[in-house]
Amino acid sequence: MAYEGGNLKSSSINGVKMYSVTAQHRPAAWLPPKKLKAQRKNPDYLQRVDLIQDLRFETSTSRIKVTPDGEYVIASGIYPPQVKVYELRELSLKFERHLISEIINFEILDDDYSKLAFLCTDRSVRLHAKYGSHYSVRIPRMGRDIAYDCWSCDIICAASSPDLYRINLEQGRFLSSFCTQSPALNVVSRSKVHGLVASGGEDGAVECFDSRTKSSVGRLDAVAPSGDVDAEVTAIEFDGDGGYLMAVGSSSGKILIYDMRSSNPLRIKDHMYGSPILNINWHKTLNSEQSKLISTDEHVVRIWDPETGEGMTSIEPAAGKINDICVFKKSGLILLAMDSSQIPSYYIPALGPAPKWCSYLENLTEELEEGGQTSIYDDYKFLTKEDLAKLNLTSLIGTNLLRAYMHGYFIDYRLYKKAQSLADPFAYDSYIEKRKQEKMAAELASRITIKRKLPKVNRKLAEELLRKEEEQNEKDADGVDALKEPAPKKSSKKKKGLTTEVLKDPRFNKDMFENKDFEIDEEAPEYLALHPVAPTTTKNQSLLNEHFEPLEEDEQSISGSDASEDDREDTNSKFMKKSQGPRLYEVKDNRHAEAFWNNKSFADEESLPLGERAALRKPQEGSKNVVKHGQGGSREISFNPRSSAKYKEYDDDEETRPEKRRGVQSLHLPAIGGRGRGRG
Fold first, then answer.
1. What is d(CA 576, CA 572) in angstroms, rounded to the nearest whole number?
2. Three-class SS of residue 506?
3. Concatenated DSSP letters for 61-86?
4. Strand 116-120 to strand 124-129: parallel, antiparallel, or no bridges (unpaired)?
5. How far apart are CA 229 and CA 218, in angstroms?
6. Is the separation of the CB atoms in 619 and 637 below 8 Å?
7. For the purposes of burial, counting CB atoms within 10 Å of the CB of 106, is it exposed (0-12), middle (13-18) or buried (19 or more)?
8. What are the b/e assignments for 343-371, b being 16+ CB within 10 Å?
């Protein structure tokens, strides 16, 4: 281990300490030597802790494994596709090799790195020796997983087909495949105790084969007891003690433990993330008599007891998604392959001692420990107050069944599932109906549809003609379905408008839909005169909303005092058709009416400050009497009074004052358009 007075980050989950033995800050490899020397003054760089030198990839790590002799660590990653072999005695990189295509999975065929088999994305199985690439062979379908049977020297490949392909390395040829009943296979695993080969399919079934009989010895619908109908099998692992226990991981994030002598699971464990299970390990150390189960998905690594189901601890890295896990035998050291450049390493003393090649790690964990205690609630579900109200569980607030945390509460996952089933008992039925609709939509999407290209000129007109044609075809199809022998069509007396024949007619097609001079202007007065009910444009609609107020239904109705009984009967008979009638608007005032007539908007004026708006509305200085129009028909009159000296002579002699009376004409009100007839 390379360290210079650094600190180990530690955390405590459920009372179990865990140490992160990974350098958090690394200098870039392309830095010049002067920049690297400057890193000596960086305290983060000086306090780094590296378990293995250069334990990283440029982009991400796909798989990581340790050789059976425990002397080498082999990891595959990108980019470019490559394999790195690390020698643990030297704590450094031994060599690296580049491949043509990415690696899906690989198997170690010997005790060390001398014989390797790589399953690649180009459907090839590449065999490598100490000196490099030895041979390459292709399988019929895209491979998904690989396993090695050391008893018969067979490489077994699971692919996107119902067959398990077998390649015998001793004879150098393909053997007859194991045929399964699943449509495709996701995973294959082999027991080191009794030699059974188990395959997991997309239909959620596990099928076992015996290489001596070359036939299936049993088939089990392994995922169905968990309640997930459409779940797939993504991970299988046999225990190493007796060989009669089998752990099955599903695509819904659940692990089921089976006794091979029974078809019912002994225990079901839920990761509660909903992501597929990637890897399962039966781990036994000197610290515990019973084996622990280490299950991994792309979010979390959970370590728990397979007998009781109680969680021991968990690892939740924040650097990216988890792709694979490597657990050293009879120790507490774990390496993770992730979608990040680094390969983080974690040491859990309660899980087991440190390996021999880093035995000093036990002393360093106590000396370099950094403070920090973290407690989490395993097997609990976090709910907010809104979620509790939906499940009718607000009465449990303040009891021991809910644990307050931040802005919500933790509730036992089993109680949450029961409450969810009671709150929505038809959730399963709705789920099945939704799946049916999705399948029907997928089938409809796969059908061949005719895509018609619309012209650039008069695009709306062409789209409307095509829409009318489709509606007419649907009506004709409905008529044929209703009557096996449809009656002959009667000639319609109505004038038919434009049809799709216009698009095919050369007399109209070239000019009407290609020449921009014949493009229809929907805002022209001639078009509006011929189409009075045409939909208003966005501009006119915005002006209408700004200068007018819509009338309510009670204002549009006829008042009882002014209407006769015949009018009331007509109103009642047309009440049902009111929604189809025109909508009435009332102008706000004369100022808004004049602005609407001139296609003017007050949006720019309203955005100005109050002083500038008042200056715009201020009357001209030369005018004596000015009438302003306000809201609701109100009037504001301003005038300049005349000097009293001019009328002083009338005050002396009242009889000589003119007898002319003031009238409405002096107000200079605007004339109402048109001379209406008065009553009487």
1. 8
2. helix
3. EEEEEE-TTSSEEEEEEETTTEEEEE
4. antiparallel
5. 21
6. no
7. buried
8. bbbbbbbbbbbbbebbeebeebbeebeee
pLDDT of 116 higher than 60:
yes
Q: Rounded to the nearest 5°, which phi and psi values hold at 452?
A: -100, 135
Predicted confidence at residue 552, as pLDDT, reads 64
Relative to beta strand 322-327, strand 333-338 is antiparallel
The secondary element (H helix, E strand) that includes residue 337 is strand 333-338
Rounded CA gap, 69 and 89, in Å?
A: 12
Q: Which residues are CB-contacts of 365 (< 8 A; sequence separation ≥ 6)?
A: 8, 10, 19, 347, 349
Q: Let me know: does 511 contact 518? Beta carbons within 8 Å.
A: yes
Question: What's the CA gap between 302 and 268, in Å, rounded?
Answer: 14
CA distance 582 to 565: 24
Helices 538-547 and 590-597 pack at an angle, to 10 degrees, of: 170
How many Cα atoms sit within 13 Å of 610 on the Cβ side? 0
The model's pLDDT over 316-353, given as tens digits with 9 standing for 90+, comes to 887 788 999 999 988 888 999 988 888 888 888 888 88
How many Cβ atoms sit within 10 Å of the Cβ of residue 468?
Answer: 14
Rounded to an integer, what distance in angstroms lies between the CA atom of residue 417 and that of residue 266? 20
Closest to 196 (Cα-Cα) out of 179, 220, 212: 212
CB atoms < 10 A from the CB of 467, how many?
Answer: 10
pLDDT tier at 478, thresholds 50, 70, 90: low
Tokens of 35: 């920049």
Distances (CA, A) of 606 to 150, 178, 220, 540, 546: 85, 80, 75, 19, 12
CB-based contact 180:188 (threshold 8 Å): no
Q: pTM (2 decimals)? A: 0.54
N-to-C CA span, the chain: 113
- 293 neighbors 301 (Cβ within 8 angstroms): no
Chain-centre distance of CA 617, in angstroms? 54
**Has residue 372 got a pLDDT over 70?**
no
Nearest to 219 by CA among 244, 234, 199, 245: 199
Side chain identity, residue 424: D
- The single-letter code of the amino acid at 169 is L
Q: Examine the pLDDT at 118 and tell me if it is beyond 90.
A: yes
pLDDT of residue 644: 54
Q: Encoding tokens for residue 121?
A: 């994305």
Distance (Å, whole) CA 54 – CA 38: 20
Q: State which H helix or E strand residue 543 sits in.
A: helix 538-547
What integer pLDDT is reported at residue 540 of this predicted model?
Answer: 65
- Quick one: which of 56, 18, 520, 539 has its CA closest to 317? 18
DSSP calls for 477-497: HHHHHH-SSPPPPPPP-SPP-
**CA 6 centroid distance within chain:** 40
Contacts of 104 (CB under 8 A, 6+ apart): 62, 119, 120, 121, 143, 144, 145, 146
Give the residue-averaged pLDDT of 534-543.
60
Q: Among 314-318, 357-361, 495-499, which stretch is predicted with the lowest mean pLDDT?
A: 495-499
* CA–CA dist 551, 229 (Å, integer): 56
CB contact burial 301-338 (16+ within 10 A = b; e otherwise): bbbbbbeebebbbbbebeebebbbbbbbeebbbbbbbb
In this model, does residue 92 exceed pLDDT 90?
A: no
The residues with which 96 forms a beta bridge, in sequence order, are: 84
Give phi and psi for 216, each to the nearest 5. -75, 135
